[in-house]
Amino acid sequence: MDVNAAVAAVAAIAGLLTGVIAMLAFRWSERDQARPTRTSLHTDAVLPPGVDTVLSVLRSSAVVLDEGDAVVKASSAAYALGLVRGGKLAVEPMLQMARDTRRDGEIRQVELDLPRRGTGRGEALAVSARVAPLGSRLVLLLVEDLTEARRIEAVRRDFVANVSHELKTPVGALSLLSEAVMDAADDPEAVTRFAGRMQIEATRLTNLVQELIDLSRVQNDHPLEDAESVRVQELVAEAIDRSRHTATTKNITMAAGGATDLRVWGHRGQLAAALGNLVENAVNYSPAHTRVGIAARRVTAPGGDLIEIAVTDQGIGIPDKDKERIFERFYRVDPARSRATGGTGLGLAIVKHVVASHGGEVTVWSTEGQGSTFTLRLPEAAAGRDRTRDGRGTSSEITTEPFTAPEVLP
Q1: CA distance linking residue 396 with residue 381, whole number of Å
Q2: CA atoms within 13 Å, Cβ hemisphere of 374
Q3: Cα gap 225→406, rounded to integer Å
């Protein structure tokens, strides 16, 4: 009995130890599972409930950092801007802001200029960064891309400055000329001379105001809302009629040629204004006894046939350094000559905006002293495809003098 009792006691003790060991092992396993690991820190489980959903609908780039500055959550926009790389916040000023906010709990905001991802060239990214605590351990970083807003603000600021300057010139001239007329009341010849100058300045002011109105209209109106199939031949005839008086005064021959019965799809008024501006510039910047030609043709393109309208002159030409800027608002190659011809520097800006809004493009070829060729490329309207595919046609009867269409240069 004593032996049996001893065996039973040993068995009971062994069972008790096994139970204790099993319990300790189970508790140790629970602790391991509850302990945050490197992987679990980068999952959504550590975020407070609902935060992931809110971050997914924000327009701003969002980054959540833990106490070790590791990225717990980052939106796709944050990766696109280059804010997060290799699981770390790559912008040192933002990282320092996050550390300061984690230390004292204060919300911080700053605007920064960041280099574009890939190369250090080009326009910098302007961003607004806001850092706030998220719970007891996490920090939330929201980044707003301000690049486009900054660009629009710069354009608006430059536009207002340029408009103020351009309006001030004729208004100031009119004020001085009116004083001169009053002082020369007893001199009829002087009054006539000053009145002529006043008329010139008033015309410049009228043209400037009208082109400002036109530019505002083409920027605000959607051309395809009132779109129609427009005959190119009618646009060319209207553009020639618009500059006929000036051309006759300077003995400039205007002629049109190329394919007929071509059509483009768009806003008739805007297209007429754009082509009219090109023809008017060609006449204004050409010397007397020269020629201005307008040629239209159909060209084949991968996305569909295009209509090319080229306006060629034998004028002063454009220097290479100015070709990339001539479509900017108020930019003039020769400011003195532009004022003499009544130019405002808005005509080509209107042309570029109209053509771009119609899904086309405008290009220029020019050599100083030899002339320029401005080419409009616009999508063809379906109604214009009743001709042969090579774009040949009879010459337009805009003028009685035949005109050989110039080679359209890229």
Answers
A1: 19
A2: 26
A3: 34
